[in-house]
Design a protein that fits this description.
179 residues; single chain; alpha+beta; globular; two-stranded antiparallel sheet; ten-stranded mixed beta sheet
């Protein structure tokens, strides 16, 4: 039934989020949803589709940037957003060189506890095979290393040069196929 000139599009663009080692889609409260920050989410193990768009945008927090990856599967599109300084981007960026961006893939966010600290990551499967990272701690190739910086007596890492390198590599590869 159509009311007031509103129409439902067959092609939807669904926002999904990675947390708790799962793909999380906003939902109404049900017996199977989880609650985070007052919102309810349906959880999924993975998200599959073909990458149809990649954008780098201003992040939600000041002086940050995020990546928006659109995956399309049949008639539905899913928009995944994660920060450039996240483990999700480090995993995605280091594997991107080995992805066939014209073929469907499956994203699996991961989380494990290291003491009392959450360690997030992302693994990717394509054509029945797990995608290997093109850049590893043992083999960084031409990619700049993260710079250790002391903050409040502890060590954090500045990934700016590494992120810029990966962004350039991702956009160059994506534009070569989708131009």
């Amino acid at each position: 039934i159509l009311k007031m000139g509103l129409h439902k599009s067959q092609n939807t663009n669904n926002a999904v989020y990675f947390f708790n080692g799962r793909v999380n889609m906003p939902s109404v409260k049900t017996e199977t949803t989880i609650e985070k920050n007052g919102k309810h989410y349906e959880q999924f193990e993975s998200l599959s589709g073909t990458i149809t768009n990649i954008e780098f945008v201003k992040g939600y927090q000041e002086n940050t940037r995020d990546v928006l990856v659109t995956l399309t599967d049949s008639d539905d599109s899913y928009l995944v957003r994660f920060g450039l300084n996240s483990a999700y981007f480090r995993s995605f960026g280091r594997m991107f060189k080995n992805i066939d961006i014209l073929e469907s893939l499956e994203l699996f966010p991961t989380m494990k506890m290291d003491g009392d600290k959450e360690k997030n990551g992302l693994v990717i499967k394509q054509g029945g095979e797990w995608i290997k990272r093109a850049y590893t701690v043992e083999n960084m190739g031409d990619m700049p290393i993260a710079i250790p910086v002391e903050v409040n007596g502890g060590t954090q890492y500045d990934y700016k040069d590494q992120n810029d390198y990966l962004i350039n590599e991702i956009l160059t590869k994506f534009k070569a196929v989708h131009s």
